[in-house]
Amino acid sequence: MKIIADESIPFVAECFSSLGKVEAVPGREITPALISDADILLVRTITRVGVELLADSKVKFVGTATIGFEHIDVDFLRRQNIGFASAPGSNANSVAEYVVAALLFMANKHRIQLQGKSIGIIGVGNVGGRTAEKCAALGMKLFLNDPPLQRQTGDSKYLPIEQLYDCDFITLHTPLTFEGVDKTFHLADEKFFDSLKPGCVFLNTSRGGVVETDALKAVIKTGGLKAVALDVWENEPNIDCELLRMIDLATPHIAGYSLDGRIAGMIMIYKAACEYFGLEPKFDIGSFLPASVVRELKINPQFAGEQDVLREVVEKVHNIEDDDTRLRKILDVPAEKRGEFFERLRANYPVRREFQNTKIEFATEAPEKNLVKKLAGIGFKV
Asked: What pTM, to 2 d.p., does this model score?
């Protein structure tokens, strides 16, 4: 079989070579001519897959190594009897760990104690659910909003969005949808921001279009928010550089880019392709994950507060400020080349491993139990 794959999917050639000949190319270079005689197409969000791309192809199976699939015309694939797989949940832990790192970064910058603070989590699927668990481990009070889950389960823990407006923190984890009762496009609009508690800290790691950029800039200018962290942007890769200058933490859509999550996504679509073609998988996630560089950290919590210890430990594994610094260099790039710069940051993102790969050892014989519980709760081995 002939396989065309986005080269940014880690180990895609090594893994899918068990199914056929793999040609890995940049996502924006996947064209109708390139895939005309391909059997399998493997993409990430940068490639839009629908009738324009596939009309004259022989493609029998499409896989996207991402949790979302707004870039895929699933109805078209179904009508053409083309197999399809995405990777739901593959990078959920990665995004949740990013949120932890962002919370600790902004809490340190603005001298906020996270213990006891309220956080509203809008969207409680794979990512939002993991985020909720880690925020609870940090001692935060959870307020959850997910209308589809509320209707499906009837669970009263899923609150109307209005009951989240008084939270100290708000974090978005919804898909991007443009119609229907649960439309999320510009969910965070002028009315939304005007309703938030003054001094709220706002985070978005879902999709850029969930937030109305002009409304966010307006509330920042009036001082309505204490801090803002954005990993996703409207009109990516051509992001709003005025907004970039205004916020506390800015990263180039890499919250889900842990190596663990990216390889997990690749393995999910690999196994789905094997099943579709009736083949036995030869690889699993352990076939490609290397040992973590930071396998062990020895800490002495006697000389710092609990939250400072958590932040310092997290920074050893994921220094989110480095991600912010790299993106802000876009301001020195000519306007017409900023989109390319943004995409290069994503394509060349440094290896980041998840907390679960690092074991914490204590210099003291009897470490504080609450600190141990929090470290384990956000994902470290203790």
From this structure: 0.93
